[in-house]
Design brief:
This protein is an alpha/beta fold. Helices cover 50% and strands 11% of the residues. The protein has 3 domains: 254 residues, MetI-like fold; 155 residues, Rossmann fold; 99 residues, no CATH class. The chain is built from 22 helices and 13 strands. The strands form 2 sheets. It has an 8-stranded mixed sheet with strand order 7-8-9-3-10-11-13-12, with helices on both faces. Strands 1, 2, 4, 5 and 6 form a 5-stranded antiparallel sheet that branches. β1 and β2 form a beta hairpin. α14 crosses α15. The longest helix is centred in the first third of the chain and has 37 residues. The two termini are 60 Å apart.
């Protein structure tokens, strides 16, 4: 924090604005103490006098020294502007965070109110509220505060919505952290910087607005005075005594510039403090009875994910993952892989809906209304300690305002009742377990100080803070070089081997899945089109889509003079699924039946199921060399 403040003040603009703002604030504190008597002294012998050696800026209609009155008025002008800014910020922040806290319907209503308020000019709103709250300093403060709230609310809504979609917020939801605590610990620290900057700049605007209301007679009332009141009182004599009106106007401009320039400097170097929340020590609860199949970790039956439209990107998939098993899910973008993982992790938010005839983790149902709060707490702790999620982008998976060790320790403190010291020791141990060098030092660093591979390993370490029975890894090797990819995959394999942890590995790279996994689920258009052992993938894949995916992977024998193999056509729009097989329009083996009847998964050997009316029997690798011109060139 200190270093970032130094960064603000090292710039010429930051240093100059900081010194000027400090001087103005110091003046606001000391001026009434030092010069109130001179400012209020009435001298009837020198009424409306111009600039003299005794009165630097002249006197008003009662002979009071204008220079001292401008100095003394700095306290009321700045204090009232800061109070109005605080009202605007806190009211705007409450309105901006309402959609996240109140849910869909109340959030929409709040957003509509804010949108309507933003459409009105700020000065018009201020005059409107000034009429409602009445003439005087109190009414003007409330008027300016509430008039400025809509702009802060709009900013807060945008910022909160952006942070709410980040992976570290999704991880907090998986851990069972409540909405309000997520807001305090994860969202507000990440939006504090732009809010502080805009509040600093907004203080300058509030100062000008307040001076305007006082100038119009709606703000500070006699015998009190501020800069706006002084300008209003000097208006009648502006042609014969311009200094009386000019001096408070110059004071408003200088103070406004100080706030605005300092806000611009803060935008470049200000750091965000980390908020701390209270630790909740969970009490032991009895979990639901164990499943009949003690070896099953995750059971999914007829899982469907729908969105308004209607859009159904996941259409009735079923699979089971057993203890110590690595199951890979492959398919093109839009095939429903990540949505399946998010549905399992309970991270599909409204208006999305998840339906399944069965969705259970370690025997505990994950769907349906929970019968009691104790059962809800037990489910939350189950997901928080036994379910680990490794997201695609490790940079967005961590809260950038918190140290790595603190983020890893949070789950242990939340669900395992550890003290701060115990949780941090556990975090260091988990960083060591995922092969991060000097874990004690690394635990005190921020995410941006880690390389991409180290962030991904740290993300896996976060999942190991409890005793995970399942790790869902959604594209864990994206944007990593091949060496680091192999390290991450080896780490997952080691974790599986040592602790019998089940892994659901989602990837676009079918060759990676073939090397690492025990079983492969091939998804297309929201359905599983083939389920087969990984060691049979290269030679035994029977669905044309699986074979096309394999054929599209180049190797050392791929002819350099020929175009790379591609799958013709485009994936199906999830809002407009055709009749019959969704892959029929791209499949060179499609028959008339494929375009009218939708195939279901049927057995084609031990642990091998295919959803195809015309499954192919030749080894998949032959697709590259048997003259399948459509796959080679992309022509349907």
């Amino acid at each position: 924090m200190r270093a970032r403040w130094h960064a603000v003040l090292r710039t010429p603009v930051g240093a100059g604005a900081g010194v000027l703002l400090f001087a103005i604030l110091l003046l606001a504190v000391l001026a009434p103490v030092l010069w109130s008597d001179q400012a209020n002294a009435i001298d009837t012998e020198h009424l409306l006098e111009g600039s003299t050696a005794q009165h630097l800026l002249g006197t008003d209609n009662l002979g009071r020294d204008i220079f001292y009155r401008v100095l003394v008025a700095s306290r009321s002008s700045i204090l009232l502007a800061l109070i109005a800014t605080s009202i605007a910020v806190f009211t705007g922040l409450a309105l901006g965070c309402a959609p996240m806290l109140l849910g869909r319907r109340a959030g929409r209503l709040t957003t509509s109110v804010v949108n309507i308020a933003v459409a009105f000019p700020g000065l018009l709103l201020a005059l409107f509220f000034a009429v409602i709250f009445g003439v005087g300093a109190k009414g003007a403060v409330l008027a300016i505060g509430f008039a400025g709230a809509p702009s802060f609310a709009r900013l807060a809504q945008t910022l909160v919505a952006g942070i709410s979609e980040r992976d570290f917020v999704a991880a907090a939801r998986i851990a069972g952290v409540g909405r309000f605590r997520i807001l305090l610990r994860h969202v507000l620290p990440n939006i504090a910087e732009p809010l502080v900057v805009n509040a600093t700049i907004g203080a300058g605007g509030a100062l000008l607005a307040f001076a305007g209301l006082s100038f119009l007679g709606l703000g500070v009332q006699p015998p009190a005075y501020d800069w706006g009141r002084l300008m209003g009182e000097s208006l009648n004599s502006i042609y014969v005594h311009p200094a009386a009106a000019l001096a408070p106007g110059v004071a408003v401009v200088i103070a406004g510039l100080a706030f605005n320039l300092f806000g611009e400097a803060v935008a470049k170097g200000f750091g965000v403090p980390v908020l701390k929340g209270a630790r909740v020590v969970p009490q032991p609860e009895t979990m639901p009875a164990a499943p009949v199949d003690d070896d099953a970790v995750l059971v999914v039956r007829e899982l469907r994910v729908t969105f308004p439209g209607p859009v159904t990107p996941v259409r009735g998939i079923s699979f089971t993952i057993h203890k110590g098993e690595i199951v890979g899910v492959v398919g093109e973008s839009g095939s429903g892989k990540s949505l399946t993982a998010l549905a399992v992790a309970q991270l599909i938010e409204s208006p999305g809906q998840v339906h399944a005839s069965e969705l259970s983790f370690l025997g505990a149902p994950l769907l349906g209304r929970v019968p009691s709060r104790s059962t809800a707490d037990a489910r939350r702790r189950l997901l928080g300690t036994s379910f680990a999620m490794v997201f695609q982008d490790p940079m967005t998976s961590f809260n950038p305002t918190k140290r790595i060790g603190v983020q890893l320790a949070e789950g242990a403190r939340e669900h395992q009742g550890m003290s701060r010291r115990q949780a941090m020791a556990r975090a260091v141990d988990r960083l060591r377990a995922v092969r991060i060098p000097t874990p004690e030092r690394r635990a005190r660093q921020y995410p941006h100080e880690f390389s991409g591979g180290m962030r991904q390993r740290a993300m896996i370490g976060m999942g190991l803070m409890g005793s995970p029975a399942l790790i869902v890894a959604d594209e864990p090797t994206t944007a990593l070089d091949v060496t680091v990819q192999q390290q991450v995959l080896n780490l997952l394999e080691a974790i599986r081997t040592e602790d019998e942890v089940a892994v659901l590995l989602i990837s676009h790279d079918i060759t990676v899945v073939a090397q690492v996994c025990d079983r492969v689920l091939v998804m297309y258009a929201g359905r599983i089109v083939e389920d087969l052992p990984a060691d049979e993938l290269a030679s035994g894949a029977r669905h044309p889509y699986t074979r096309a995916l394999l054929a599209a992977v180049p190797d050392l024998e791929t002819p350099l003079e020929e175009p790379l193999a591609v799958i013709p056509g485009r994936p199906v729009d999830p809002s407009q699924f055709p009749a019959g097989c969704a892959f029929a329009a791209r499949c060179e083996f499609a028959e008339d039946r494929c375009k009218t009847d939708d195939p279901t998964l049927t057995s084609h050997g031990p642990a091998h199921e295919v959803a195809c009316w015309n499954p192919q029997g030749a080894p998949a690798w032959q697709a590259r060399y048997l003259g399948h011109e459509s796959i080679r060139t992309g022509r349907a």
